[in-house]
Design a protein that fits this description.
The protein is 42% helix and 19% strand. The protein is of the alpha/beta class and 375 residues long. It folds into two domains: 263 residues, TIM Barrel (Alpha-Beta Barrel); 96 residues, no CATH class. The strands form four sheets. An eight-stranded parallel beta sheet has the order 4-14-13-12-11-10-6-5. It is globular, with a radius of gyration of 21 Å. The termini are far apart. The relative contact order is 0.14.
Length: 375
């Protein structure tokens, strides 16, 4: 039996809309989780993140265990108090980050021994330690510890990795225990192989989790291959539990994934783009470094209600981006996160009204037209 409630309030084809109910608040689905890697959503205050419409943030187990440290975080009252965010927080397992440390890690059945990219210190991350860290942080939703292989990879390597991840999922579930009001999600692996994905889903379902993530995608396979997996993978997972596509993604990735039955998303794209002069809009991506914006008095998007679009011109945004002013990151990040939450609200409404296909068609048509013409 799940420790948290998930209510599906509407369906349109394979898409669903509803809410995940946690003691710290409800998460409306489909949901996008801004990434707060090191206990902060870069260039944003917590109240500003909430003002965009975000119900939940993502924190990073790997980075937080290294700095400031899980035990220190617990002594200071947990991650919520530490970063001044009282709504739900999901923490990832650290498996993806450890994967990227290929030259600094040793993988065994027990777990992963690795050297910190910060100071070279040695650490051992096991399913049990991963659960302990997320408990010390006070995560509302914890992720089981898994290995996330990069794609492309040989089938044998994918199968072995998936089997190891399923053994670690069992150990994660045992170590997590029964914590009322806190959820643990399992992570499906299996690369691009339908039968391995099915085997993984069956193993996770036997163990029993509060939600299920689709892992091992957005790691170099491209959108077409990712959608190919999403054509079947969500349906392999329990229908009455939330489905989370990890590390995705671009706005068109999200629309396509919602159409295929995914409920939750996270990605660094809106915040990272905001720090590099890129605005993500209903027109597509807009590069504010481009000289065509230098004398344009119009807002980035006249139909957007975020502070960036309400109060500043493209000319000003171009200026502060080109001069490297901190306000450029602040304004563009706020806009990007606002746009993502506006997109999620549109998707939720469309599913509830049975109009998702029409919403998606209008979304793609507007992006195909491109940005507004320069003056």
């Amino acid at each position: 039996m799940s420790r948290v409630a998930f209510e599906i309030e509407g369906r349109d084809g394979r898409a669903r809309t509803g809410k995940l109910i946690l003691p710290r608040g409800e998460i409306r689905t489909p949901a996008f989780m801004p990434v707060g890697t090191a206990a902060t959503v870069k260039a944003m205050l917590p109240d500003s993140v909430r003002a965009t419409g975000a119900d939940i943030l993502l924190g990073n187990t790997y980075h937080l265990m290294l700095r400031p440290g899980a035990e220190r975080m617990a002594r200071l009252g947990g991650l919520h108090r530490f970063m001044n965010w009282e709504r739900p927080i999901l923490t990832d397992s650290g498996g993806f980050q450890v994967m990227s440390l290929a030259e600094l890690r040793k993988l065994t059945e027990e777990g992963v021994r690795f050297r910190s990219h910060v100071d070279g210190s040695e650490h051992m991350l096991t399913p049990e330690r991963c659960m302990e860290i997320q408990r010390l942080l006070g995560s509302d939703i914890a992720m089981c510890f898994d290995e996330c292989p990069a794609l492309p990879a040989e089938r044998g390597a994918i199968a072995a990795s998936m089997a190891l991840s399923m053994r670690w999922a069992r150990r994660s579930r045992d170590a997590f225990g029964d914590r009322a009001g806190h959820a643990l999600f399992g992570i499906q692996q299996g690369g691009l192989e339908p039968d391995l994905r099915a085997e993984s889903a069956e193993a996770l379902t036997r163990i029993g989790f509060d939600g299920y993530a689709i892992g091992g995608l957005a790691v170099g396979e491209g959108q077409e291959a990712m959608f190919g997996v999403l054509d079947y993978a969500p349906g392999q997972l329990p229908d009455d539990r939330p489905r989370y596509l990890m590390g995705v993604g671009k706005p068109d990735d999200i629309v396509g994934a919602v159409q295929r039955g995914v409920d939750m998303f996270d990605c660094v794209l809106p915040t990272r783009s905001g720090r590099t002069g890129q605005a993500l809009t209903r027109f597509g991506s807009v590069n504010l470094r481009n000289a065509r914006h230098a004398e344009d008095p119009r807002p980035l998007d006249p139909d957007c209600a975020c502070p960036c679009c309400r109060s500043y011109s493209r000319a000003y945004l171009h200026h502060v981006v080109k001069t490297g002013e901190i306000i450029a990151s602040m304004l563009l990040t706020w806009h990007n996160l606002h746009y993502y939450q506006e997109l999620m609200q549109g998707l939720r409404a469309a599913v509830a009204q049975g109009a998702l296909d029409a919403f998606a068609a209008a979304f793609h048509a507007r992006r195909a037209e491109g940005d507004v013409a320069p003056l």
